[in-house]
Design a protein that fits this description.
- The complex is a heterodimer of chains A (about 200) and B (about 600).
- With about 200 residues, chain A is of the alpha/beta class.
- Chain A has seven helices and six strands; from the N terminus they run αββββααβαβααα.
- In chain A, strands 1, 2, 3, 4, 5 and 6 form a six-stranded mixed β-sheet that branches.
- In chain A, a hairpin with a 2-residue loop joins strand 2 (about 50-55) and strand 3.
- Chain A is globular.
- Chain B is of the alpha+beta class and about 600 residues long.
- Chain B has four domains: about 10-135, Jelly Rolls (Sandwich); about 155-255, CBS-domain (Roll); about 265-450, Beta Polymerase, domain 2, CATH 3.30.460.10; about 460-595, Up-down Bundle (Four Helix Bundle (Hemerythrin (Met), subunit A)).
- Helices cover about 50% and strands about 15% of the residues of chain B.
- Chain B is built from 23 helices and 20 strands.
- In chain B, helix 3 packs across helix 4 (about 115-135), helix 11 packs antiparallel against helix 12 and helix 12 crosses helix 15.
- Chain B starts with 16 loop residues before the first helix and ends in a 5-residue tail after the last helix.
- Classes of the chains: A alpha/beta (about 200), B alpha+beta (about 600).
- The interface between A and B is medium-sized, with 21 and 18 residues.
Chain lengths: ~200, ~600
């Protein structure tokens, strides 16, 4: 029955075996800030090219433990995307396989909440891979940085027009943008926004 | 992942490429909020912080600031190597720091000799910097033996006869020469020659090698001058030989050393006191600039320099006054110094701003020639004349007590900008020579409440807004060909705004820092504003002084242009901060005096 369900409803059941702990409730104070770069900007077709993640604890970004993976992929990248993330096919030869990358990401993230800018997209991409490999979806809590931002702003001025692009947010929060469009650079900037939005007293 | 700071500079350049590579993987990034305490006194540091963006201030927690750190600066090595942090580190703005964990840092120290030497010597300098702040005598104790202190050595051959040696000494104006002979290198002094020929049995033809002394007393190049002085007292000699890595590089004479110390503030003060003629005073006045330079080079705090220089300047004027005025006329006048000198904020000599209060109008004739002499003396001391004519040789700045009182009344009632500026200049006056009580009556006039209506106070405050703060709409420094006028842009609005508040509340103090203290004690300004303005003023003065000292013109004290390119990045960012504070202060003034309607 369980097996049948698994077959019929891929990704419907919680993770098992090696990844069982991912579904445990999390009670620490760390979050993982994560960002993926893909071949095309499409939830269904985009192939994973690189993924980066850091643990944020309080005001500290644990760069020394950061995850920064390039994925070996032969996917065609359209020129516009290359211009965005600068990962040419040649650069990706040195990377790891996508299965290995997903394994490392899952190990790294554990059951901590996952935070990012437009995290819905990264979630979809990762889930697509995870579903194929292990047949489950990430059970973690997801935190959307722009959502915190909007909530904080709207608390004071409800009808405010906000610039919700990555750059717009960074500029308004006065957070330095470091190496935009490399996964790790975006992760650091996002982490800084997250710290500023949640840790700083105003 | 690449790190956003340049590791190709000391101390990281001492590491090998692999070590640097390793280091980049060991750094964490920490984000601090404005005013957040990063490390507090007594706290154990988690590691070494390397500033990526922002400014961090090191203080004792009670308001005394020791240092500021900007991009790529490192703190706090001592807290990592010793048990706990000695000072408080606060983020002045939102600050990003890379954090190198203590264990990793210590591992690098263990692995790399050069790297650890850098930090260990740095500890020494840091320690000496702290000492320097603690003691007033440090100026010359910290001076080291270098080329400026010693003379190049003069050698003679051991075969030379005494007569020739004596001639040579006379020609070269040396009192000692070195002798090269088969027994090594020796020394012969004038006294040795005298003793050998007059008291001993040597003749003019004796070879110098016979009387030379071969047990040279030496000091090492780069050692403290102080230790040379100790050697000399110990052996009762007047010169020592300076060696550098074994080689003789020069001689250090007691007399030369004493003259080096003569720029020391005590010595200048003594010279001023002891001078018997104006000429001697001129010499002392010229030394003042050298003193300021050496104080500034040694990083003595700005407030301390201002206080010292003000004291010395006033003693100089008093001494000149005593030399020029006969005793019977001394208490018939009161000489005021005005403007920056009156506030005690002058460092390098700027123009003369001064005025005289006469006891009796009919004595004007008798006093005038003396005042002219005094004016002349000030010119010789290096104070250029005031372009606006605010000097006691001009009729409008000489008056009796009643005359001054009337003048103050007319100024305040007219409300014209010129009259207000004159009032501002006079208000900063400080009586220096003569009968100082005369000034009290003049002061009482503008401190009298009928004349200080809110309208007049507002007119008085208005010039503070005259010049725009050189900040762009986005809060960056607005420069004009890489320069800004620091007086118009920062110092004047700040000083004048504080003066206006002091005027409104009839504050006695003249010094801007003291006025700020008063305003804080009486809860007119809050602590944060006061501290911010004090820091800003001291910063402006410090940066300006540093650039003025680099100018090779006649009166560097008159230059108000700041060249932004010559500022260190820390200073530039501090300057921006300080200008922001001035801008805020101006807004506070607008609000307080309702200046928007003028």
């Amino acid at each position: 029955m369980r097996y049948w369900l698994r077959r019929q409803l891929p990704g419907f059941l919680p993770p098992e075996g090696r990844w069982r702990h991912l579904a445990d409730p999390y009670d620490g104070d760390e979050v993982v800030v994560l960002d993926c770069e893909t071949s095309v900007f499409d939830k269904r077709k985009g192939e994973l090219l690189s993924v980066a993640a850091v643990v944020v604890k309080g005001q500290e970004i644990q760069l020394s433990q950061a995850l920064d993976l390039t994925v070996k992929s032969t996917a065609k990248t359209d020129e516009n995307a290359v211009r965005v993330h600068y990962l040419r096919r040649e650069d990706r030869h040195l990377g790891v396989s996508s299965a290995e990358a997903i394994e490392k990401v899952l190990d790294f993230v554990g059951n901590r909440p996952i935070c990012g800018f437009y995290i819905e997209y990264d979630r979809a991409i990762l889930n697509r891979y995870i579903k194929r490999l292990y047949n489950f979806k990430l059970p973690n809590r997801f935190i959307e940085v722009s959502e915190i931002y909007v909530n904080q702003k709207r608390r004071y001025i409800p009808e405010l027009q906000l610039d919700l692009t990555f750059e717009g947010l960074a500029k308004d929060l006065q957070v330095p943008v470091i190496e935009r469009h490399t996964a790790i650079g975006d992760v650091i900037s996002t982490a800084l926004m997250y710290i500023k939005l949640t840790q700083f007293k105003r | 992942m690449s790190i956003q700071i340049n590791l190709n500079q000391p101390p990281f350049s001492f590491l090998s490429t692999e070590q640097r590579q390793w280091l980049t993987q060991r750094l964490d990034l920490v984000f601090f909020q404005t005013d957040q305490v990063i490390l507090d006194e007594g706290q154990v540091a988690p590691g070494l912080f390397i500033v990526y963006k922002g400014v961090v201030e090191e203080s004792d927690g009670q308001g005394q600031v020791f240092s500021q750190y900007g991009s790529e600066d490192i703190f706090d090595v001592r807290a990592v190597l010793e048990s706990a942090c000695k000072h408080r580190y606060t983020a002045c703005e939102e600050t990003l720091c890379y954090l190198l964990r203590a264990d990793d840092f210590i591992k690098l120290l263990d692995d790399s000799d050069d790297f650890s030497i850098y930090f260990k010597t740095d500890l020494g300098t840091q320690a000496s910097l702290v000492e320097q702040r603690d003691s007033g005598v440090s100026e010359f104790i910290l001076a080291r033996i270098d080329d400026s202190a010693m003379r190049p050595p003069v050698y003679v051959n051991g075969q030379t006869n005494l007569a020739r040696v004596a001639e040579l000494m006379h020609e070269q104006k040396y009192d000692a020469v070195l002798v090269r002979s088969s027994r090594g290198i020796g020394i012969v002094t004038g006294t040795d020659l005298l003793k050998a020929t007059l008291m001993g049995d040597k003749t003019k033809q004796t070879r110098v090698a016979e009387i030379a002394q071969y047990d040279l007393i030496t000091v090492e190049y780069g050692e403290f001058l102080f230790s040379a002085l100790l050697q000399m007292t110990q052996y009762q000699i007047e010169r020592v030989v300076v060696r550098r890595q074994g080689d003789i590089v020069g001689m250090l004479e007691l007399m030369d050393m004493l003259s080096l110390f003569s720029t020391h503030s005590h010595v200048i003060a003594m010279r001023i006191e002891q001078s018997r003629s104006l000429k001697e005073l001129v010499v002392a006045a010229q030394r003042l600039d050298t003193l300021i330079r050496s104080l500034s080079d040694q990083g003595v705090k700005m407030a301390a320099i201002m206080e010292l220089v003000t004291t010395l300047n006033r003693r100089l004027l008093q001494r000149a006054f005593d030399l020029i005025f006969p005793p019977r006329l001394r208490d018939r006048v009161c000489i005021l110094v005005l403007g920056s000198e009156g506030r005690g904020e002058q460092i390098l000599k700027t123009d003369q701003d001064n005025a005289v209060i006469l006891k009796q109008e009919h004595e004007r004739e008798a006093v005038m020639p003396l005042l002219n002499q005094l004016h002349q003396a000030l010119l010789e001391f290096g104070y250029p004349p005031c372009p606006g004519g605010v000097m006691f040789i001009n009729d409008s700045w000489i008056n009796t007590v009643e005359g001054w009182q009337g003048k103050v009344g007319r100024w305040l009632n007219s409300g014209s900008p010129d009259a207000m500026m004159n009032m501002a200049i006079l208000m900063d006056g400080e009586p220096v020579c003569g009968d100082k009580n005369l000034f009290d009556d003049v002061k009482a006039r503008w401190q009298h409440s009928d004349l200080r209506s809110s309208m007049i106070s507002a007119w008085f405050a208005k010039p503070a807004l005259q010049f725009e703060t050189p900040l762009t709409f986005l809060g960056k420094i607005r420069e004009d060909h890489g320069k800004i006028d620091i007086k118009k842009g920062g110092i004047f609005p700040l000083v004048h705004g504080v003066r206006a508040l002091a005027f409104e509340h009839a504050v006695d103090a003249c010094n801007t820092l003291e006025r700020l203290d008063w305003l804080q004690q009486h809860q007119i300004l809050d602590e944060e504003v006061v501290q911010g303005l004090k820091d800003a003023l001291l910063l402006f003065v410090r940066i300006r002084l540093r650039q003025q000292l680099a100018i090779k013109a006649d009166n560097p004290g008159l230059s108000q242009q700041l060249n932004l390119e010559h500022l260190r990045s820390v200073d530039r960012s501090l300057l921006r901060h300080a200008l922001h504070r001035v801008k805020k202060f101006k807004q506070l003034l607008v609000h307080h005096y309702h200046l928007e309607s003028f």
